[in-house]
Structure formats: structure tokens, C-alpha cells
Design goal:
The complex is a heterotrimer of chains A (about 575), B (about 60) and C (about 180). Chain A is mainly α and about 575 residues long. Chain A has 15 helices and three strands. A three-stranded antiparallel beta sheet of chain A has the order 2-1-3. In chain A, a hairpin with a 6-residue loop joins strand 1 and strand 2. Chain B has a domain of about 30 residues. The relative contact order of chain B is 0.09. Chain B has three helices and no strands. Chain C has a single domain, classed as Immunoglobulin-like (Sandwich). In chain C, about 25% of the residues lie in helices and about 35% in strands. Chain C has two helices and twelve strands; from the N terminus they run H-E-H-E-E-E-E-E-E-E-E-E-E-E. In chain C, the strands form two sheets. A seven-stranded mixed beta sheet of chain C has the order 2-3-6-12-11-8-9. Chain C is elongated. The chains are: A mainly alpha (about 575), B mainly alpha (about 60), C alpha+beta (about 180). Chains in contact: A-B, A-C, B-C. Chains A and C meet through helix 2, helix 6, helix 7, helix 9 and helix 15 of A and helix 1, strand 8, strand 9, strand 10 and strand 11 of C. Bound molecules: protoporphyrin IX containing FE and copper (II) ion (2 copies). The site of one copper (II) ion has 7 residues of chain C, from loops.
């Protein structure tokens, strides 16, 4: 096969790039950022309307813009970026040629076509059905067709990823096991295959229904299978950004996983149990028994929550160990104080962990509890939760790795360095506010996807308490901060990629590697007892342990406060 | 397939005589994981869920 | 050596864990089990649970039952001229039907505090979201599924039912009252 097997070694990072794969990563990442821009502009319209004092858009435009915001952000921005991550984690980290770059391009163009077609249907104005498109509310056929084409493209990308794993093994580009980050990417890709299969099961009949070829789509069947798609896709994000947390710790600190066994087993629990928690969307629905609800919503006894709690410890823990080994071994938190807070790659990852865990994780488990779901189902608490998880946790992790990828992948210097320092804080803290205040308003009953909580002119309207209005206002104000952070990210990345100073390496040549085989990585020695003499209380990462206990304390408290609150509402059985 | 390549790893083979534990072999086998990651949610979530939905009784 | 490189040892499964990981895994596992058992526990000892009671029904049948209930227990009408909605005061313990449709809750219910009612929820068209404020009880309402909740209002007052599942362009106008005497 006369495939292009050119590799280059990145002079700044030492990573080995297969050039066709590199080009795919660049294009997927660039397109992702374009969708982030679109989704971000739409977020302005959505937020300034829900901020009742501003109430910018009229209802039909609001619902249309909200539909487009959800899709462009949650689906197109996130998944294009994830495809870039998959190619990076397979081809680059395994020093292997990408399997079938031609197929990968086919997938790419299908995804583009699908994304454009789906946006077209929403722009038409007859498909303001939100990204969930719950049947029997129908959209234009191009809405579903666009999503299906996009999903097929993404599926192709997953198979290119798996194919690359096979090539790497066959051509022996690595010894033993794949890297932990690659393993995390495998987790993400596996979840993606299940996700896309569920999507196909439900979206294809819905497409046929919208064309008039099928009589009836059952609303409960739709919601059940659709969430197998809709929620599992969120779990792809979790697996992907957790991998990037590990990658960030490795790149910024040279951190080594505390234990391969623990981290990989935690990923295994994701593979086995993460997807079934899609059931937490159906806790307030009729027709499904409590047995199904409890077992599935709890990820089979919260085993996947256990996994997340493990990652939440081991990523900062590995950073702590690396820092202590460097000599920041005093007290509990010297390692953290002396962390590179001005490096946006680190700051982004750290805030991602913090906000995902404290705001997204705790609220997610709370509302995924069968009975507790009753007091928040479909309130704006729900978008509050996922703006902490995917809109901040995942998005911020992706933003953080871009600061690493721009010099490495695009060979450009980061522009506006002083601004880049503040970007993760502005976006992260702004979004944390957005998430927190939405959750606050949701606790007071404010509905999601709702144009007018004042019920103007409605004889039966409900008057929300002043606190709810205040929360929505504070959400708007926090969003302004997040918009500045988001705009800075776009400015910095677009500026650097197109106008940034080129990084030239004198004498740099492309290297054609022998039959596609990259050079073997030098296995660094890892002497037993290397960690002797660091830490306290017989632990290598006591500071992280204290942080983890703080997390657990907040978790337990918040969880039981909500049970207390539930116990005061009307008895129901 | 995964096991076949295990023994053909490059490098001094005599260092590699320690058997790889079963669970590590599972974690090193992406296709077995792919199978599990699809089969488990399909059975527990989709099949079980759909069975419950179709068995909802008809109102009198 | 690091998370982005293959593990340096061929067999990493047997590496010992550090104490910090071990203790945390045990703590986290215990907490996960507590959270899991809270759900069945609440089914036995808690008072707020959704029953697994639901029936497949057609909108026409369901509407017929609703109209029959209204004919029997209607006490007055409320609302703007031309769009009056009946108010019903069904007896305690009875089957109470609430219709969700674009974009209205029908009829208005008047219940007694401390008494239990079998409230049925069903949609005539698309999905709707039953959201009782300020109690903040939220239940998904499907077309084709008659969902039965046995509810006991605990305090008197005027409550609102709003729709919190997006149901099209007038979703935000779909609101109603519920009286507890
Ligand atoms: C500056 C950043 C952002 C702001 C201020 C923002 C704000 C909002 C607001 C106010 C809503 C409406 C909630 C409702 O009425 O139900 C919303 C919905 C949503 N946002 Fe964002 N958002 C931002 C970024 C993101 C990102 C990065 C993502 C995903 C990666 C995202 C995903 C979503 C989704 C999926 C919805 C739900 C749409 C629906 O209910 O159908 N947002 N956002
Ligand atoms: Cu409605
Ligand atoms: Cu509605």
C-alpha cells in the first residue's frame, strides 16, 4: 500500500506525528472551534432572554436559538474536538500511522455535511424542537437526516481509531500496554459506538416517521432509547476529558499515574456501567418500574461514580506526587501553591476537575437519585448541572489542551500570552456562576427551556419568588464573565493558528519512517520505592486526600439536605 | 489475537516470562472491552427498558 | 513513564497501591453503597415515591373519563371570558383526571388538605411537564400513558401547575391552578 507514511518528531514535545493524522487532527479541531463560536454567539441570545430583566428575543426566535445552541455546543463542538482527541490518542501516542486516512476524511466530510444539514433545518424555522427532538413533536426530515449523517461520520472515525490500535499492535509501535491516556480514549470510543448505535435505533425510525413512512412513534420508547444516545454521548465526554486530565498532568508536570491498575480499572467501570445511567432522564416517567430505574440510574450501585471519585483523586494525586518529587514537599499544600497557576493548560485542567467534581458531579448524583429527581426534573437545575459538567468540565479541559496543541500541532506560538493566562479563570469562574445560579433557580422551581417565567398576561400564571428572579439575573451576570472568557479563547486560538508567529526549527526535515514504524519509546526505569520520603501519614499525596475529604463532606451534606427537602413535600405514592 | 502478539513482543524475551494476569489481559484487549461495553448497556438498559414499556397494561 | 506513554513495566497489574488510593477507594465504595440503598430504603420508609402504576390509553378514552368526572364534580368555572376552564372538587380517594394538551391543563382541581387522591396524568398530544409550584413536584406527562399518582396535599393554599417540558411555541403559556382547601 502506497500510503503516506511520513512522520515528524515535534521538536518541542518529542511527540511523533503521522502527518496525514496530524492534518485530520488540525481540521477536526479547527471545525470544532468554529462550532464553539457559533454556539457561543447563540448562547448570548439564550442567556439574555432567560435573564428576565433583559428578555431579548421573542419566543419563536428564543426556542429556535436555544435549539441551535444545544446542538452546536453539545454535539458539534464537542464531538469534532473529540475526534481530534481520538486521533491524537491513537496515532500520536502510539507513534503509529493512522489506519485509512481516506476513510477518516470521509467521516470528517459526513460530519460536516450532517452538521450543516441539521443547522439548516433549524434555520428553516420549522425544527425548533430542542436537541432532544422528543417525538411526537416533529421536525423537518433534514433535522434527523443531518444527525444521522453526522453520527455515521463519527462512527467511521471511531473505527479508524480502533483500526489504528490494530495497526499499532501489528506493526509493534509500542511495547506491552497502551498508554493510560490512550486507554481512556478507548473507553470514550467504546461508549461512542454504543451511543451511535442507540441513536441509529431511534433516529432512523423517527426520520421515516417525519417522511410519513411510519405511522406512530411511541413517546416513551423514544425517550428511553433516545437517552441511550443522548446521555451516553455525555459519557463519551467524561471519558475523553478524564483522559485529558491525565494527559495534562503528564504534559505539564511529567506526572505518572499513581497506579495504572487503579486508573484503568476505573475506566473499565466506565465501560461497563456508565451508559446505563441514561435512565436518570426517565425517573419521572410512567411505565418503567422502580427496579429498572434504581438499578440503571445508579450505574449498577454507583460503580461508575466510584470510578469518577477515583479519577478525581488520582489525577490531582499524581500531580501532587510529581510536585513533591520536584522538592515541593513541605506541608500539605506546598505542591499546590507552587503549581504553575499562570499556565493556562494547567489552570484549565485544574478548574475543570474542580468544577466538574464539586458542581457537576455532586448535583448529577443528587438529581439522578430516583426520588430526589421529583424535586428538580425539568427545572433549570438540569441545565445548571450540565453547564458544570460538559459546558465547563469538558469544554475547559478541551480549551486547556489547545494551549498545548497549538505549538505542537500547528507549530505556532500562542498569541496574547498575557490574556491567555486569565482565559481559563474568566471562563471557568463565569461558567461556575452560570451553573450554580441555574441550579439555585431550579431548586425554586424555575422551568428549563421557558421563555417567560413572569407569565405576563396569563390569568393562571405563577408568580415565582423574588429569589428565583435574582438567581436568573445573577446567572446572566456570570454569563457575561463567561462570554469574555469564551471570546478570549476564540481570539487566542484563531489568532494563533492563522496569525501566530511560526515556530521554525532550523534544519527541520520530514522523516520517512521505515514502513510506518515509529521509533520505540525509551521505557524509563521506575525503581521500586521511588516515592520514599515524600508525603505524610504514610500517603504519597496527603494534600489531595484532604481535598478529597472536603469533597466527600460537601457531597454527603448536599445529598442529605436534599433528602430532607424531599421529605417536606406532599406525600406521593 | 491480542495474546498472539503478546509473545511476539520485541525485546529480550527472557525478561518477559512472567505471565500477564487475566484482568490485565482483559484491559489490554480493546475488542473484548468493546463487546462488553455494548452488550452490558444493551441488555440492562435497552432490552430491559423496552420489555417494561411493552408490558405496560392497557387501561380498563 | 507518564500517562501519555505505555507503562514501563510489562506487568503493571501487580504494582502495590499507595495507602492514599486504597483508603479513598474504600471510603468512596462505602459512600456509593449508602447512596444506592437510600433509594430502596425510601420506598419502604419514605413518603415521596412514584408508584409504578401506569396504563396504556388512548386520548379519546382518557378524555371521556375526564369529562365524566367534570360532569359529576364541577363546582364552578374560572378564567378569561371565552376561555373558561371548569373547576372540579372530586371526593377524597377518588380517581382524578388531569388532561395536558397544547397548551392547557384541564380541568382545574380543588382538593382537600390531608386527603389522598388518585391523580391521573396524561397528554393528548405531545410531551408536557407537570410542575406543581411552589411545592416543586415535577413529573413527565406522556401521550398514551395514563400515569397514576396517589397524592396527599398537606397544606391549604393556591398552587400553580406549570408546564416544564418544552411543548412548542406557547409552552410558556401553559399554566393552571390547583386549590387545596
Ligand atoms: C458562555 C457560555 C454559555 C452560556 C452563558 C450558556 C447559557 C445557556 C443557557 C442560559 C441555556 C438555557 C437554559 C434553558 O433555558 O433551558 C443554555 C442551554 C444549553 N446549553 Fe449553554 N451556555 C454556554 C455554553 C455552553 C456549552 C459550552 C455547552 C456544551 C458544550 C452548552 C450546552 C447547552 C445545552 C445542551 C443547552 C440545552 C438546550 C436545551 O435545553 O435544549 N452551553 N445554555
Ligand atoms: Cu406543555
Ligand atoms: Cu411545555
Amino acid at each position: 500500500m502506497a500510503t503516506n507514511r511520513n512522520f515528524r518528531t515535534c521538536p518541542s514535545s518529542g511527540l511523533v506525528f503521522h502527518e496525514p493524522a496530524e492534518k485530520l487532527m488540525r481540521w477536526n479541531a479547527v471545525v470544532a472551534v468554529v462550532f464553539l463560536l457559533v454556539g457561543g454567539l447563540l448562547a448570548i441570545g439564550v442567556t439574555l432572554t432567560r435573564w428576565q430583566a433583559v428578555h431579548l428575543l421573542d419566543p419563536s426566535l428564543f426556542y429556535q436559538v436555544l435549539t441551535a445552541h444545544g446542538l452546536n455546543m453539545l454535539v458539534f463542538w464537542i464531538i469534532f474536538f473529540e475526534i481530534a482527541v481520538l486521533y491524537f490518542a491513537s496515532s500520536t501516542l502510539l507513534r503509529c500511522r493512522l489506519a485509512t486516512p481516506k476513510m477518516a476524511w470521509l467521516g470528517f466530510w459526513l460530519m460536516i455535511l450532517g452538521a450543516l444539514m441539521n443547522n439548516y433545518s433549524v434555520i428553516r424555522g420549522d425544527s425548533s424542537v430542542m436537541f432532544t427532538s422528543y417525538a411526537p413533536m416533529g421536525a423537518h426530515p433534514t433535522f434527523y437526516l443531518g444527525l444521522i449523517l453526522f453520527a455515521v461520520g463519527a462512527l467511521i472515525a471511531c473505527f479508524v481509531f480502533f483500526g489504528t490500535l490494530v495497526v499499532a499492535r501489528a506493526e509493534r509501535t509500542y511495547v506491552g500496554s497502551v498508554s493510560l491516556v490512550t486507554f481512556g480514549a478507548i473507553t470514550a470510543a467504546i461508549i461512542a459506538v454504543f451511543t451511535i448505535a442507540s441513536g441509529a435505533i431511534i433516529l432512523i425510525p423517527t426520520l421515516l416517521w417525519s417522511l410519513g413512512l411510519i405511522e406512530h412513534i411511541d413517546s416513551l420508547m423514544y425517550r428511553t432509547i433516545w437517552w441511550g444516545f443522548g446521555h451516553s454521548s455525555q459519557q463519551i465526554n467524561v471519558a475523553a476529558h478524564v483522559s485529558l486530565w491525565y494527559a495534562g498532568a503528564a504534559i505539564v508536570f511529567g506526572a505518572k499515574p499513581m497506579s495504572e491498575k487503579v486508573s484503568r480499572t476505573a475506566f473499565l467501570l466506565y465501560i461497563l456501567f456508565l451508559q446505563i445511567a441514561s435512565a436518570h432522564h426517565l425517573l419521572a416517567d410512567p411505565g418503567l418500574t422502580s427496579n429498572w430505574k434504581i438499578f440503571n440510574t445508579s450505574y449498577a450501585m454507583y460503580l461508575a461514580v466510584l470510578a469518577s471519585m477515583v479519577h478525581g483523586l488520582t489525577v490531582p494525586g499524581s500531580i501532587e506526587v510529581a510536585q513533591r518529587m520536584k522538592g515541593y514537599n513541605n506541608g500539605l499544600f506546598e505542591w499546590l501553591r507552587k503549581a504553575p497557576w499562570g499556565n493556562p493548560a494547567f489552570a484549565g485542567i485544574f478548574l475543570s476537575i474542580l468544577i466538574f467534581g464539586f458542581l457537576g458531579g455532586i448535583s448529577g448524583v443528587m438529581m439522578g437519585t430516583e426520588q430526589l429527581n421529583l424535586i428538580i426534573h425539568n427545572t433549570i437545575y438540569v441545565p445548571g448541572h450540565f453547564h458544570a459538567t460538559v459546558a465547563t468540565g469538558t469544554t475547559l479541559a478541551f480549551m486547556a489542551v489547545t494551549y498545548f496543541l497549538i505549538p505542537v500541532l500547528f507549530r505556532r506560538k500562542i498569541m496574547f500570552e498575557p490574556l491567555a493566562k486569565y482565559q481559563p479563570y474568566l471562563f471557568g469562574i463565569g461558567m461556575a456562576g452560570v451553573a450554580l445560579f441555574m441550579m439555585g433557580a431550579g431548586t425554586l422551581g424555575v422551568p428549563r427551556r421557558h421563555w417567560d417565567i413572569s407569565f405576563a398576561g396569563n390569568v393562571f400564571g405563577y408568580e415565582f419568588p423574588g429569589a428565583a428572579w435574582l438567581m436568573m439575573g445573577l446567572m446572566g451576570v456570570s454569563a457575561l464573565v463567561a462570554f469574555v472568557g469564551g471570546a478570549l479563547y476564540l481570539l487566542i486560538t484563531v489568532g494563533s493558528v492563522f496569525l501566530g508567529q511560526k515556530i521554525e526549527t532550523p534544519g527541520f526535515k520530514h522523516v520517512g519512517v521505515r514502513e510506518g514504524v515509529g521509533a520505540l519509546p525509551a521505557a524509563a526505569p521506575d525503581p521500586k520505592g521511588a516515592h520514599a520520603g515524600i508525603g505524610a501519614w504514610g500517603m504519597v499525596a496527603p494534600g489531595t486526600f484532604v481535598l478529597a475529604l472536603v469533597f466527600l463532606g460537601s457531597f454527603v451534606l448536599y445529598y442529605f439536605v436534599n433528602w430532607k427537602y424531599l421529605s417536606t413535600v406532599w406525600p406521593l405514592k | 489475537m491480542a495474546n498472539a502478539t503478546q509473545s511476539s513482543n520485541p525485546g529480550p524475551d527472557d525478561l518477559f516470562d512472567e505471565p500477564v494476569p487475566a484482568l490485565q489481559q482483559l484491559l489490554d484487549n480493546p475488542f473484548l472491552l468493546l463487546f462488553l461495553g455494548i452488550a452490558i448497556p444493551t441488555v440492562l438498559y435497552i432490552v430491559w427498558g423496552v420489555m417494561e414499556i411493552v408490558s405496560v397494561p392497557i387501561a380498563k | 513513564m507518564s500517562a501519555i506513554l505505555p507503562p514501563s513495566e510489562r506487568v503493571w497489574w501487580k504494582q502495590p497501591l499507595d495507602r492514599v488510593e486504597l483508603i479513598w477507594i474504600v471510603i468512596a465504595l462505602v459512600w456509593c453503597l449508602i447512596m444506592f440503598f437510600m433509594m430502596p430504603y425510601w420506598h419502604v420508609y419514605g413518603k415521596q415515591n412514584l408508584a409504578n402504576e401506569a396504563f396504556r390509553a388512548t386520548p379519546a378514552e382518557y378524555l371521556k373519563k375526564t369529562e365524566a368526572m367534570i360532569a359529576q364534580y364541577k363546582v364552578r368555572e374560572e378564567g378569561a371570558e371565552g376561555q373558561k376552564v371548569p373547576v372540579v372538587a372530586p371526593p377524597a380517594g377518588s380517581d382524578v383526571y388531569l388532561v395536558a394538551r397544547l397548551w392547557q391543563w384541564y380541568p382545574i382541581l380543588e382538593l382537600e388538605s390531608g386527603k389522598s387522591y388518585r391523580i391521573h396524568l396524561m397528554s393528548m398530544d405531545w410531551l408536557h411537564g407537570f410542575s406543581l409550584q411552589p411545592e416543586n413536584i415535577n413529573v413527565e406527562v406522556h401521550p398514551g400513558y395514563d400515569h397514576v399518582l396517589t397524592v396527599t396535599p398537606t397544606s391549604k393554599g393556591t398552587y400553580s401547575i406549570i408546564c416544564n417540558e418544552y411543548c412548542g411555541i406557547n409552552h410558556h403559556t401553559m399554566a393552571s391552578k390547583l386549590y387545596v382547601k
